[in-house]
Every structure is written in C-alpha cells, then in structure tokens.
C-alpha cells in the first residue's frame, strides 16, 4: 500500500509530511480476546486506585449527626450487629448495679457516650472502643454484686488440675527462689507493659497495618476481656496466693485481694500502688482464666499478623508474661492456657471475617488502594472463572476470591480491586475503615 503525504503552506511548499497508512484490520480485532480483557481490567484498576487510595485511609471530620443517621439508613444489617444489642444490655445492667458514682454521674457518662456515637468525628474512635468500654464498666460493676447472687468459690479445682496436667504446682516452683532481680523482671511485663501494650499495639497497627486493622483489634480485645470476666464471675476460683496464705480452706467474698509477689515492688520503690489496687480488686477470685495471658496472646497474634517477621519477638513476650504471672503467684499455668485459648478463638473469628489482609509490598496504611477482609477463598478448579469474560459475566471473577453480599471483603459499585475482580475498596462516605454505627462483616457491602 502506497504511503500518502500532505504539506503545510500550500501546493508549492517544500515541507511535506508522510502519513501512516491505514491497516485494513482494526487494532482490537488483531489483539487476542484474553489480552483485550486484561487490558480493560488493568485500565479499570488504575482508575479505581486513583479514586480510592485517599478514601480508605481518610479520617472522618464531620460534626453533623445527620451523617450518622444517613449511614444507618444505608447500612447492610447482619447477625453481627447483635453485638451492639448485647453491649447495650451489658452497659445498662452494669450502670444499674454500680453504686458509686451516683446516678447523676452515671447519666452524664452515658450521655457523653451516646453523643460520641452520634457525631461522625468521634464515632470513628468510640465505635470500635465500645467492647472495651463495656468490659471496663462490667469489670468495675462486679465489685457491687453481693455474694448472695454469686456462685460458691472453687478453691481446690485449679490446684487439682495443675497437678493432673503438669504433675506439680508450677507457680510455687517458679516462685520458690525470690530475688530483687527476678521481682523486677516479672514486674515489667505484668505491672507495666500489660497496661500500655494495647495502646502501643493499636498505634503501630494503625500506621503499618491495612486500614481497618486497629478497629478490628479493639473489638477483639474488648470481647476477649468480656468473655473472660463473665467466666470469672460465673466460675470463681482462688489464685495461687490464696493457697499459700490460707491453704485449701473455703473462701468467701468478704476476703480481700492480695498483691502477692507485687508487694515486693511496692516495698522496693516505697510506694503503695499494687497493694491497694489488688486488695480492692472487683474480682478477687478471678484466677480462671487469666486476662493478663489473654491480653498478651491476642496482642501477639494481631501484631504477628501485621509484622510477620517479628513473630518470634511476640512469642517471646507472651512467654515472658506467662512466667511473670506464675512467679508473682497470681495465676496457675492452667489459667494462662485458658486465657490463651479464648484469645486465639476470638482472633481467628476476627481474622476469618473482619481482619483486613496484608498485601505484599505495602508498608504503611496509606499505601493501600483497596482492602480485602477475612480469609482468602480457594480459586475455581482448573481456572474456570479465569477464562470467562468479566464484562460478559459480571458476577464471576477470575482470581482466588468470590464476592457475595455480607462477605468479608469491601465493595463499592464505583470501582474494582486489583486482586479481587469486582470487589473493591472502601468508599469515601464511610467514617473509619468502613465503620458505621452498626458495622459488621457486611458493613462495607453494596450501599443503597
């Protein structure tokens, strides 16, 4: 085919430009079908990433309660939303039981909490905090539940289990040889890092984890402690320090608590911190399960998910705290195992349905263009879905995940995720990683 030319400046112009000859076949006809489909998918992903990178990492700044009501109207309700009904019942029960402070102070605190949930700016922080708040109020309320409404205290059960499972009382063995060095070594995880670790872990996961990791951790941490306190209230057991002080004599709820090994820390620093705190503990006979063990375990599991290369460090910290609890005579080994099992159960439930998945090559939360929640599904056999045109079959996808309403991954009709076919990032109209006043596994599903 001969090439044609055109000139600038008329017929006698010396500047002539050759034009490219037109091919008889159009470009889309020459490119194979699979490559055209892949090109269209890549182009769509690039446009989606530009529009959603900022939206899934932003923090809500609105002060208008109408935005919260609007989120409730568009929220896709699921069975997981029943947790808020339970928390409301638990909170009302606890406030009714608590005698101090008085009714005016309790009403004031409850009003502030409700207002914080109505304002989008504060809702994004207080909504994931609700299970933790419920646990703290419930734990404090146990102080005002009289002995006539409580079950009898089990004194012999835990020592018997300890001897059956381990052949001896490990707590007494580890605490047989006391020294100032070991006292301080046990005090550091049990009396210091235990109280600050949840805040440090939350901050690190907020910066380095996928958007939504910190709220999931907060909810899991709160529910783990609520379950633990509930078991302690229904199945009260005497800790090792009681056996050392009173033997196996029957216990009653009028007996005060004891700082046990932490009394040496008060004496060392000439303070009255742990003695007064543990003596007036709301749950004196709450040895089983160990919430210290539960907290350390669930922190280690979530941190290992965010920082997999540091997993041995988190395991070492958990073992350190386990040793400290037994050395200080606060828990038996069976208490530690029970706390770890509860934490592991809560963690794997959260991981299977709510916890955002880590993505290779992403270091900060701001690097994520989309969020996928829960465990990844298995791909279709023999790549069946991968051979189908995504535009012709919009309900199927060619990678390892299926999307259904109420699934664990995020979805927005306006965009698609790079690795999940038609499932896509959290949209910008949600408060914090998709958390609304009644968020659940499908809180980031299709909006009406």
How would you explain this protein's 3D organization?
With 448 residues, the chain is mainly α. It has a domain of 204 residues. It has 16 helices and two strands. A two-stranded antiparallel ribbon has the order 1-2. A hairpin with an 8-residue loop joins strand 1 and strand 2. Helix 9 crosses helix 10, helix 9 runs antiparallel to helix 15 and helix 10 packs antiparallel against helix 16. The longest helix has 29 residues. It is globular, with a radius of gyration of 29 Å. The C terminus is likely disordered.
Summarize the SSE layout with pairings.
Blueprint: E1 5-7, E2 16-18, H1 27-30, H2 33-52, H3 65-74, H4 82-97, H5 103-118, H6 120-141, H7 157-166, H8 170-174, H9 180-208, H10 213-234, H11 240-246, H12 263-269, H13 274-279, H14 291-306, H15 311-327, H16 333-353
Report how far the terminal alpha carbons are from each other: 56 Å
Multimerization state: single chain
Q: Compute the gyration radius: what is it?
A: 29 Å
Question: Spans of 5+ residues with little confidence (pLDDT < 50)?
Answer: 5-20, 22-27, 46-53, 380-448
How many distinct helices?
Answer: 16
Please provide the ordered H/E string of secondary-structure elements: EEHHHHHHHHHHHHHHHH
